[in-house]
Specification:
The protein is α/β, with parallel strands linked by helices. The chain has two domains: 1-29; 33-120, Immunoglobulin-like. It has one helix spanning 3-26; strands spanning 31-32, 38-43, 46-47, 52-57, 61-68, 72-76, 81-85, 89-96, 101-107, 112-120. It has a six-stranded mixed beta sheet with strand order 1-4-10-9-6-7, with no helix packed on it. The protein is extended and about 65 Å long.
Length: 121
């Protein structure tokens, strides 16, 4: 193997290690910080990929859409907004992020948490 080939192989190996560390460091979680529009998909009354952690900035806009195969009421706690989602439909929560704190978004009748939303100052 030539010197140039060894350098290329070492460079590729280093890249693989860096990518692996990034994936491990994020834990493969479904968390979104400084989120823009965010969508939670629901199948069988459960959030696909697990409960989503989302962070918005106070003074910005909360923009969260829930797409669901299950009919239920979606409740955005803290801001106390309720919307009915039909089976196979979606609802959008879009409003000014005026209250900072941690809030739960859930399917009310199924008592299933879909997202943990943080609004930070």
């Amino acid at each position: 193997m030539s010197r140039n080939q060894r350098v290329v192989v070492l460079g590729l190996a280093a890249l693989v290690v860096i990518v692996a560390l990034v994936v491990i460091g994020t834990g493969g979680s479904s968390s979104t910080k400084g989120a823009g529009p965010t969508t939670v998909e629901v199948q069988g009354a459960k959030p696909v990929g697990g409960v989503k952690d989302v962070t918005f900035k106070k003074g910005g806009t909360v923009d969260l859409t829930v797409k669901s195969d299950t009919a239920d009421e979606v409740h955005f706690h803290g801001y106390d907004v309720h919307k009915d989602v039909p089976a196979g439909g979606s609802v959008q929560f879009r409003f000014p992020a005026k209250i900072d704190g941690e809030f739960v978004v859930e399917l009310e009748e199924h008592k299933e948490t879909l997202a943990n939303v943080t609004v930070e100052p």
